[in-house]
Amino acid sequence: FTFTNSGKNGQKIKELRQRLYTDVISHRPDGVFLFWDSDVSSSENTVDHLLKESTQTKYEEDLRFVVSSLRGNISFVIVGGPILMGEGPWLQPRRFFGRSKVLTLYSNINSRVCVSENVTFLNLRKAFLDNIPKPFLLNGGFLTNDGEHGNTRGTKIIIDAVSNALSDWLRSLY
């Protein structure tokens, strides 16, 4: 089986849509794991902008195009993200204030699109939130010091979820 890594750091779904065929589909991989949170983490996208219905509608249109195109050309598609920003809603650094609501909202959009397109959705946000240690310990978290990228523990949550989805798919083939 071949998988492709065509991620470009910081790009949004509209940018992936523009390069989808050239950078992903043309390589004819057996599977794709679509994982990003740039649409909600980008500093140019304020919380107010992301909560606008028109912004959400455009995001959903772009995501639906990408997921539908992948589903029509690739055997196995997994969508995951967004995850966390600032380790959780109660200890967010100032630059992450208000993002928790946005992350949940966009995770729900991702889920809705995946269900309608019959694509596997990994609710990684829920997986991260469900596994935050109680009581909360900053050093026991899942993100690097920037508050956005998975550390070793966070990466393990993602790897485990993708491995389980891949195993389920492979079992379904036989």
Low-confidence stretches: 87-95
Q: What distance separates the N and C termini?
A: 15 Å
Gross morphology is globular
Kindly report the spatial arrangement of strands forming the biggest sheet. 1-2-3
**N-to-C SSE string, H for helix and E for strand:** HEHHHEHEHH
Structure summary, number of beta strands: 3
Number of helices: 7
Portion in strands: 5-15%
Class by alpha and beta content:
mainly alpha
Portion of residues within helices: 40-55%
Global mean pLDDT? 81
Instruction: Round the Cα radius of gyration to an integer and report it.
Output: 16 Å
How would you characterize the largest beta sheet?
3 strands, parallel
Structural notes for this entry:
There is one protein chain. Helix 5 links the parallel strand 2 (76-80) and strand 3. By secondary structure, this protein is mostly helical. It has helices at 13-23, 38-41, 47-51, 53-73, 99-117, 124-131, 152-172; strands at residues 31-35, 76-80, 120-122. A three-stranded parallel β-sheet has the order 1-2-3, sandwiched between helices. Helix 1 packs parallel to helix 4 (53-73) and helix 4 (53-73) packs parallel to helix 5. The radius of gyration is 16 Å and the shape is globular.
Element layout with pairings:
Blueprint: H1 13-23, E1 31-35, H2 38-41, H3 47-51, H4 53-73, E2 76-80, H5 99-117, E3 120-122, H6 124-131, H7 152-172
Parallel strand pairs: 1-2, 2-3
How do you describe this structure in short?
This protein has 174 residues and is mainly α. 51% of the residues lie in helices and 7% in strands.
